[in-house]
Specification:
Main location (chain C): membrane
GO molecular function (chain C): transmembrane transporter activity
Family (chain C): Belongs to the TRAP transporter small permease family.
Number of domains of chain A: 1
Number of strands of chain B: 11
Largest sheet of chain B: 6 strands, mixed
Number of strands of chain A: 0
Protein name (chain C): TRAP-type C4-dicarboxylate transport system, small permease component
Helix content of chain B: 40-55%
Keywords (chain C): Cell inner membrane, Cell membrane, Membrane, Transmembrane, Transmembrane helix, Transport
Number of helices of chain A: 22
Bound molecules: sodium ion
Chains: A mainly alpha, B alpha/beta, C mainly alpha
Oligomer: heterotrimer
Largest sheet of chain A: none
Order of helices and strands of chain B: EHEHEHHEEEHEHEHEEHHEHH
Radius of gyration of chain A: 22 Å
Helix content of chain A: over 70%
Radius of gyration of chain B: 19 Å
Chain lengths: 434, 309, 166
C-alpha cells in the first residue's frame, strides 16, 4: 500500500473514533497508533519531540488567557463590562453577537494564535449570550469562529513562519491577511444579525439617545475599574511594554484584587474553582494538541504532504483550476496537520507554482493564512472549535451546525476571494510600500 | 533496497545550507552507486536542533547539519564561547581537519552515539538593532539598549558585559517584541540569521564578531559504524568535499548576507579591529570564567589553551 | 481527590501568572530582566498541562466530538457506543503510556539539563508518563463502571422480557 492510502486510512480511523465519542487526545492517538503499526512511523524519539513542542513558550499565552478570562467572569469584572456594553447594544437584535465577534477580533489582534480569543472571551461571552436567549451551541460556534481572526489580524505566528520559510517581508505578510480578516469580521457581524432574528432573544426596551447617555454615565463609574483591564492589555502590548503572554499574566494579577475587593465576585472558593477549571480546560486541549502534533510529525517524516502535492500537480496548468485545487489541497492538509506545520511544509512547496501563475508571495501569504486559519475550525483537526466546546461547555451536536454555517458564509467565500481578487490582500501592504 | 536517510537542518529551503545539503545528497547517491540516499528536511520540520540531536542519538532521524545542542552535555557550550576565534583563518585552523576544537566536538558527539562527519562554518555573529547604536565599540559604556538574548548563558552574559540589557524573550515573540519596542534589538545570530528572521525590523547591524557560528554534519553512530568499509569511505569523502566547499565560500557568504541586510535598508555600523579587541579582552575576563565554571574548569582551560592562535 | 486537584492546579497556574508578571515588573520598571525564568516556567507548565488533563479524565470531561450522538436515541445503544469508546480510549491510552514509560526511562538515563540554570529537565519530562498513567487509570475506571451499567441494563431488560413473557 502506498503512503497516501495508509494516511487516508488513519484519517478514517480518526473520524470513526471521533464519531464514537472517544476523548479527542485518544482519537489522534488511535490514528497515530495505526501510522506506527502499518505506516512505517516510529514512536522512538517522538515523545521527546512532543515534549519540546509542549515546552515551547509560544503556547504559554493560552493558559494565561484562559485564567484571565475565568477570573474576569468570576470576579464581576466581565459582568460590569457587559452591563456597560449592554447599554449601547442591548436593545438591538443580534447586538451581543456582534460584540462577541468584535471582542474576539480585538483580543485576536493582540495575540498571535487562534486559541486566545476563545480563551479570553469564551468564559464571559458564551454564558452571557445564552442568558440573553442565544442557543449555547451557536454562541460557542460564533466565539470559536471569530477567534481564528487572531491568526489573520496581525501579529500572527503563522505569518512570521511564512515570511521566514519563503523569504518574504513579515510585515507585508501581516498586512496581507488584514484585508481578508476584516472582511470575515464584517461577514460574521452581518450573518449574526441575520441568524439572530430566529432566536427568542431578551432585548432591552428602546431608548432615546439621552436615556442611553444617562445610563451609560451611570454604568461608567461602576465599570471603570473593569475597563482598565482591556486598557492594560492593549496599551501594554502596543506601547511596547510587554508581550501578549505577559499581558495575560498582568491581567490575571490585576483581576484578582479587583475581583476580591472592588466587585467582590471573587471568594476563595470561586478563585480556586476558576483556577481548577481553567487548568482542566487547558490540560485537555494541550494533551489533544500534542497527540495531534505527534500524528502530523509522523505524516511529515513519511513525506505525506509532498506525496499529495506531487499527485495533484500533474492535473492541470489552468490558473483558475489550479487555484481552486490548491485551496482544496490546503484545506485537506489542514485536516492532517496544524497551521504552523502546514505553512512550513506547503509554503515553499507551492510558492514556485504560484510564481509561475502570477500570484505574488504576499498574496499567497494571505491565501495560506486564510486556509490554515480555517483549518482550526474544520474537523477532524479543529482544535479551536473543540477548545470552544470545552470552554463553552457545549456538545458537538449543538455546535457543528452553526459552525458549518459560519464557515460556509464567512470563510469559504473569503478563501476564494483571496485567491481571485488580489487587491483584497495586496491593498494594505501596498499602502506601506510592499 | 537502499535506505533513504532523513537529514534535518534549521534553515528554510533554498538557503545556502539547504543547497549545500542537496548537493551532498546528490553526490552521496552518485558516489555510492545508489546505495546511499538522503532526503533533506528543511526549516526544522523534524524539530528544533536540540530535539533533532536527541532523535539522531536514538536513531529515529539519521542525520542533520545544525548547531551542537548542550542539553544532554553542557560541555558542548564550549563550541560557542564568545570571542574565542578572531577570524576565518584561525577558525579553519581550529575547526578544520585535525583542528583541536573539531576533535573536542567529535568526542563529545561520540559520547551521544553520534558520528561527526563534517564541520560547516556559518558566520561570525553580530548585533541587530532597530534604533541607533550607542558607542558600539566600547564594552564599558552603559547603552540603555534592550537586546533579546536566546536562552543560552553565554549570550546573556555577553549582552550584560558589553553594556546592553540582555532580555530573555521567547523566539516566537521576538519579532513582534522588536517591532513594538519591548526590546530594541537582538543578539546571538549573524547577518544571515537576522536577514532571514528580522530583516523588517533591522535598522542597524553591528558586525562585532560576537561568536563563531559553526554547524556540524552528524549521523547516528550505530548506523555509520554498521556500514561496510567502502560505503563508509564514500560517506566520509562526500562529507569532506561538502566541508571543503563551505570553507571556501563561508566568508563570501557572510559578506553577501551583510550586503543583503544593507540593501534591505539596514545601516552596517563600522567597528574597528581595535574596538573588537577591547571587547574581546573584557569578555575573556568576565564571561569566560563564569562559563568555564559550568563546563568544568580544568577541562575547559585545557581546551582553550590548545586553541591555535 | 477533588481538594488535591483544586489546590495543585491553582498553585501551578498561579505560578505561571506570577512568573510572567514578575518578568514585566523587573524588565519594564526596574530594568533588570530576569534570566532563566522562561526555563523555570517549563516545569509548572508541563505539570499544569498533564495534571489538568488527568483531572479532565477524572471528571470525565475530556473533550469529545460524538457525532453518533446525533443519530442515536435509545439509551441502551448510547451505552454500547460509550463502552466501545471507553474501550478504544483505554487501548490507545495504554499504548501511549507504554511509550511514555519508554521516554521516562530514556530521560532518566540521559539526564538533560536546562540551558542556563542547569535544572534537570527530567522533572518536567516525567509528567508525560505520570500524567498518562493516571489518565489511563481513570479511563479504565470509567470503562469498568460503564460495562457494569451495561450489564445491569441487560439484566433489567431480560428481567422485563421474562416478566412480559410470563
Ligand atoms: Na493576531
Ligand atoms: Na481542520
Amino acid at each position: 500500500m502506498d503512503i497516501v492510502t495508509i494516511s487516508l486510512i488513519s484519517l478514517g480511523i480518526l473520524v470513526v473514533l471521533l464519531s464514537f465519542g472517544v476523548p479527542l487526545p485518544y482519537c489522534f492517538g488511535g490514528a497515530l497508533m495505526f501510522m506506527c503499526s502499518f505506516g512505517g512511523g516510529t514512536m522512538k524519539g517522538t515523545m521527546a519531540w512532543g515534549f519540546s513542542q509542549l515546552a515551547n513558550p509560544v503556547l504559554l499565552c493560552i493558559p494565561l488567557f484562559v485564567f484571565a478570562g475565568a477570573i474576569m467572569s468570576e470576579s464581576g469584572i466581565a459582568n460590569s463590562l457587559l452591563r456597560f456594553v449592554n447599554v449601547f447594544v442591548g436593545r438591538f437584535r443580534g447586538g451581543l453577537g456582534v460584540v462577541a465577534t468584535l471582542s474576539c477580533a480585538i483580543i485576536g489582534a493582540i495575540s498571535g494564535s487562534g486559541l486566545t480569543g476563545v480563551a479570553a472571551t469564551g468564559p464571559l461571552l458564551i454564558p452571557e449570550m445564552e442568558g440573553k436567549g442565544y442557543p449555547r451551541g451557536y454562541a460557542t460556534a460564533l466565539v470559536a469562529n471569530s477567534s481564528i481572526l487572531g491568526l489573520l489580524i496581525p501579529p500572527s505566528v503563522t505569518m512570521i513562519l511564512y515570511g521566514w520559510v519563503t523569504d518574504t517581508s513579515i510585515l507585508a505578510c501581516f498586512l496581507a491577511t488584514l484585508g481578508p480578516g476584516l472582511l470575515i469580521t464584517a461577514l460574521f457581524c452581518i450573518v449574526n444579525l441575520v441568524i439572530a432574528r430566529k432566536f427568542p432573544l431578551i432585548l432591552d426596551p428602546p431608548k432615546t439617545v439621552k436615556e442611553t447617555a444617562k445610563e451609560g454615565v451611570k454604568h461608567t463609574s461602576r465599570a471603570l475599574p473593569a475597563m482598565i483591564m482591556p486598557v492594560i492589555i492593549l496599551g501594554g502590548i502596543y506601547g511596547g511594554i510587554m508581550t501578549p503572554t505577559e499581558a495575560a499574566a498582568v491581567a490575571v494579577v490585576y483581576g484578582i484584587p479587583v475581583g476580591f475587593l472592588i466587585y467582590k465576585g471573587l471568594t476563595m472558593d470561586a478563585f480556586l474553582n476558576a483556577a481548577k477549571n481553567s487548568a482542566t480546560a487547558v490540560g485537555s486541549i494541550m494533551v489533544m494538541i500534542i497527540f495531534s502534533l505527534m500524528l502530523s510529525q509522523i505524516f511529515v517524516m513519511e513525506d505525506v504532504p509532498q506525496a499529495l502535492v506531487e499527485g495533484i500537480f500533474a492535473i492541470t496548468t489552468n490558473k483558475v483550476l489550479l487555484l481552486i485545487i490548491i485551496n482544496f489541497l490546503l484545506f485537506f492538509v489542514g485536516m492532517i496537520v496544524n497551521d504552523s506545520t502546514s505553512i512550513i511544509l506547503m509554503g515553499p512547496l507551492l510558492l514556485p507554482l504560484m510564481n509561475a501563475i502570477g500570484i505574488s508571495p504576499v498574496q499567497f501569504a494571505a491565501i495560506m493564512g486564510v486556509n490554515t486559519a480555517m483549518g482550526g475550525v474544520t474537523p477532524p483537526y479543529a482544535s479551536i472549535l473543540y477548545f470552544g466546546m470545552r470552554i463553552g461547555n457545549a456538545e458537538f451536536r449543538d455546535v457543528i451546525k452553526p459552525a458549518m454555517i459560519l464557515i460556509g458564509v464567512g470563510y469559504i467565500p473569503v478563501v476564494f476571494l483571496t485567491s481571485f481578487w488580489p487587491n483584497l490582500s495586496l491593498y494594505f501592504p501596498s499602502l506601506f510600500g510592499y | 533496497q537502499a535506505k533513504t536517510l532523513k537529514v534535518s537542518h534549521v534553515r528554510p529551503q533554498d538557503t545556502a545550507i539547504d543547497k549545500d545539503l542537496r548537493w551532498f545528497a546528490e553526490k552521496l547517491e552518485e558516489m555510492s552507486g545508489g546505495n546511499l540516499k538522503a532526503k533533506i528536511y528543511p526549516s526544522s520540520s523534524l524539530g528544533d536542533f536540540t530535539v533533532v540531536q536527541e532523535r539522531i542519538s536514538l536513531g529515529a532521524i539519521d542525520m542533520a547539519c545544525q548547531p551542537a545542542a548542550s542539553a544532554a552535555d553542557k560541555r558542548f557550550q564550549l563550541a560557542y564561547f564568545p570571542y574565542m576565534l578572531k577570524n576565518w583563518v584561525q577558525a579553519k585552523k581550529n575547526y578544520g581537519v585535525d583542528g583541536p576544537l573539531r576533535k573536542v566536538v567529535a568526542d563529545l558527539y561520540a559520547e551521544q552515539n553520534i558520528q561527526l562527519l563534517a564541520v560547516y562554518p556559518v558566520y561570525f555573529g553580530g548585533i541587530a538593532l532597530n534604533r541607533e547604536p550607542a558607542s558600539p565599540g566600547d564594552p564599558n559604556a552603559a547603552k540603555g539598549i534592550k537586546l533579546r538574548v536566546p536562552p543560552l548563558k553565554t549570550f546573556q552574559l555577553l549582552a550584560d558585559n558589553t553594556g546592553y540589557l540582555g532580555t530573555p524573550i521567547p523566539f516566537s515573540d521576538a519579532f513582534t517584541a522588536v517591532q513594538t519596542g519591548v526590546v530594541d534589538g537582538v543578539i546571538g545570530s549573524g547577518a544571515e540569521g537576522y536577514y532571514a528572521s528580522f530583516k523588517d525590523v533591522t535598522k542597524y547591524y553591528i558586525p562585532s564578531n560576537t561568536h563563531f557560528e559553526v554547524w556540524f554534519l552528524i549521523v547516528n553512530k550505530e548506523y555509520f559504524d554498521g556500514l561496510g568499509d567502502d560505503l563508509k569511505k564514500q560517506f566520509s569523502d562526500t562529507a569532506s568535499q561538502f566541508e571543503d566547499h563551505r570553507w571556501t565560500t563561508a566568508e563570501k557568504d557572510q559578506a553577501a548576507n551583510e550586503k543583503r541586510l544593507a540593501d534591505y535598508g539596514a545601516k552596517i555600523v563600522p567597528i574597528t579591529d581595535e574596538q573588537i579587541a577591547t571587547i574581546e579582552e573584557k569578555i575573556h575576563k568576565t564571561v569566560w570564567p563564569a562559563v568555564l565554571e559550568d563546563v568544568g574548569k580544568e577541562w575547559g582551560q585545557s581546551i582553550l589553551g590548545s586553541i591555535v592562535k | 481527590m477533588e481538594r488535591f486537584f483544586k489546590y495543585s492546579l491553582t498553585i501551578l497556574i498561579s505560578m505561571l501568572a506570577a512568573g510572567e508578571f514578575f518578568q514585566v515588573i523587573m524588565r519594564y520598571i526596574l530594568e533588570i530582566p530576569v534570566m532563566g525564568l522562561e526555563e523555570i516556567l517549563v516545569y509548572p507548565t508541563l505539570w499544569l498541562y498533564f495534571l489538568g488533563s488527568v483531572n479532565a479524565s477524572r471528571e470525565d470531561t475530556q473533550i469529545k466530538a460524538n457525532v453518533l450522538d446525533v443519530f442515536i436515541n435509545s439509551d441502551r445503544a448510547k451505552l454500547i457506543v460509550r463502552v466501545f469508546a471507553d474501550l478504544m480510549g483505554v487501548i490507545v491510552s495504554f499504548w501511549f503510556t507504554y511509550w511514555s514509560w519508554d521516554y521516562f526511562r530514556y530521560a532518566l538515563k540521559v539526564w538533560k539539563e536546562s540551558p542556563t540554570l542547569y535544572i534537570p529537565t527530567f522533572y518536567a519530562e516525567c509528567s508525560f508518563f505520570i500524567g498518562l498513567l493516571l489518565m489511563t487509570t481513570f479511563a479504565l475506571i470509567y470503562l469498568i463502571r460503564n460495562i457494569g451499567k451495561l450489564l445491569e441494563f441487560e439484566k433489567i431488560e431480560k428481567f422485563e422480557q421474562v416478566e412480559q413473557g410470563a
